[in-house]
């Protein structure tokens, strides 16, 4: 009886892990140090996970391994409990399950019009044309890109291109969406829109992996943070734990969010009580102060 219970718990735990890396190494052909240097981690289904680390820490390389674009030199990537299969059929399957939106959408968009771009993936799967067209229309409406459906993708603004790149992924109904610096080079308006889109995806239960340099946003948004340094996972934990780990942040060339630095100073000066849970945004900190806590 006890053995059956333990087996059932193990099976349930395995089902909950959507992305897993076991001792993954990867080096580019330039002969430098490994870009991934023994990465091991597990990510649960439906989680919002922010990846932090200096440029060159291995975030983007790890993402490309998760999608099958890069094959590790050694180690294994598992998606939904299954090791990646690098056959043509296996790669098509993993790219349906794991969609990636590149930092520069020009690396992703290559067809003439927005509509052609979004339809490329599902049409190649041989799905019924009426079903594909209906899904494309839905995704374009959701992401507010219907007005420029017939425009050349290369003629769009940076923010619009990122919306199209996300539509490219969403129309495939992935289990995991990887966003590599989604707000990079965007103005305030499109950054806000991008954040709203990401929140909407999370509410739909999609697992989201996001590389970002905005540690304040990661503190407030993420369920977990993965802190990377020199191709390794330095720390993986809840945002408050990671953002409060000053030694590890310093090693990874990161600085604690401004809201936490101010919170710690107010604690030190006795303005705030010592047992308060660290705030994840300035609204929470202002509430603590207003309540005289």
From TrEMBL:
Membrane topology, as annotated: Peripheral membrane protein
Keyword set, alphabetical order: ATP-binding, Cell membrane, Membrane, Nucleotide-binding, Translocase, Transport
Residue intervals of the ABC transporter domain: 19-255
Keyword Translocase: yes
Superkingdom of the organism of origin: Bacteria
Pfam families: ABC_tran
Matches recorded under InterPro entries: AAA+_ATPase, ABC_transporter-like_ATP-bd, ABC_transpr_CbiO/EcfA_su, Co_trans_ATP-bd, ECF_ABC_transporter_ATP-bd, P-loop_NTPase
Cellular component per GO, a single term: ATP-binding cassette (ABC) transporter complex
An MF annotation (GO) of this entry: ATPase-coupled transmembrane transporter activity
Location in the cell: Cell membrane
UniProt key word Coiled coil: no
CDD domains, per the entry: ABC_cobalt_CbiO_domain1
Chief location of this protein within or outside the cell: membrane
Membership in a protein family: Belongs to the ABC transporter superfamily.
General function of this protein: Probably part of an ABC transporter complex. Responsible for energy coupling to the transport system.
Protein name as it appears in the record: ABC transporter ATP-binding protein
